Amino acid sequence: MFRHALGNRARKAGQGILIVRFEMPYPIWCTTCPKPTVIGQGVRFNAEKKKVGNYYSTPIFSFRMKHTACGGWIEICTDPKNTAYVVTEGAKKRDTGDDKVHEGEIVLRTDEERERLQNDAFAALEVKVGDKRQAATDKGRIEELLEAGDKDWDDPYTASRRLRKTFRGERKVREKNSALTEALKDRMSLGIELLPETEEDRRRAGFVEFGDSGEPASEIALIRARAKPLFPTEQIKVKERLSSGKKAKKLKAEQVAERQRESLRLELQQNTRAVMDPFLVDQAVFVTSGAIPGIKRKRALAEEGEAQQQDTAPLIDVFKPPLVDYDSD
Questions:
Q1: First to last CA, the chain
Q2: For a Cys-Cys bond, which of 39, 55, 244, 315 suits 80, CB 3.0-4.6 Å?
Q3: Averaged pLDDT, groups of 10, the chain, 329 residues long
Q4: Could you tell me the strand order of the sheet in which 28-30 lies?
């Protein structure tokens, strides 16, 4: 059994019809629908393509398709003469105003129009009157443009000097901004192009807070961070079992005293290291806070001792000597 290479698309090939995919070149109104319906530009249909004539040696094709909303048929033909598509059946082109002649556009007459003007004296007279009216309008506009040009370039040297001065100032600003951008890229090791700074960038950058090192709290935190040893200290847990409530209170007081002594020892050790360290001698400013970590009020300690009946394990920091002696050779 013979089968066409195009398959089902060539089922009407005997009638000179080929099924193709047709895309609507512009919006149209469907005249078959009971209510006005617009078929937008770009909508695709399965259309029957058929040759219906020639324009000299160029064939004219028609595309016949079915509108599924109403079941009506729409036919659109090519127009090689005007290089356009023409709706011939079932619809009409939507008027968007693009086909109107705008101000300043020149309309070329076709051979038929020129022949009609030659044979019809009244039509030629109307065209002449319209041309004269358009010429008067164009003449006024041309004179306005000439006057504006003469006003701006009455003194060419002054106008040129004004333009060069403006360009020179803008060039200096561009060169300055370019130098700042290159310096920033070298300082930050950036391999990308930086856009010019805008007011929005300045406003957003103003919202960022980097802190103030001049405040006392910041100074204390910075000094304590610098005074810490290079290597962390080991923490050893010491467990003691409690047998009675009276003994628990006594051991709790001993623990508080031990923590107080250990806190003082660590603070003295850090201050001594900060004084002896040659890298911190220029910025050796020490502030000792009134509250020592690990110390609680007596009443709070008594209440906590009555509530807790369990083992406690205080943390004792064992200092490890540094590996480098700064006084050695």
A1: 105
A2: 55
A3: 75 86 92 90 92 92 92 93 90 78 69 84 84 85 86 82 89 90 88 85 80 58 66 49 48 81 79 64 45 48 51 45 51
A4: 37-39, 28-30, 91-93
**Residue of 274, 267, 273, 320 lying closest to 294 (CA atoms):** 267
Please report, as a single letter, which amino acid is at residue 190.
L
Token pair in block for residue 47: 């259309």
Instruction: Write down the pLDDT at residue 231.
Output: 64
58: which residues sit within 8 A by CB, 6+ positions away? Answer: 80
Identity of the residue numbered 231: F
Q: Please state, in angstroms and rounded to a whole number, the distance separating the CA atoms of residues 146 and 143.
A: 5
3-state secondary structure of 230: coil
Q: What pLDDT sits at residue 217?
A: 61
- Token look-up 């290479």 returns 5
Contact 234, 308 (CB under 8 A): no
315 CB burial (10 A radius; 0-12, 13-18, 19+): exposed
Distance CA 229, CA 266 (A): 11
Structure tokens at 321: 């000597």
DSSP 45: E
pTM beyond 0.70: the answer is no
CA-to-CA distance for 176 and 105, rounded, in angstroms? 47
List residues bridging with 58 in a β-sheet.
55
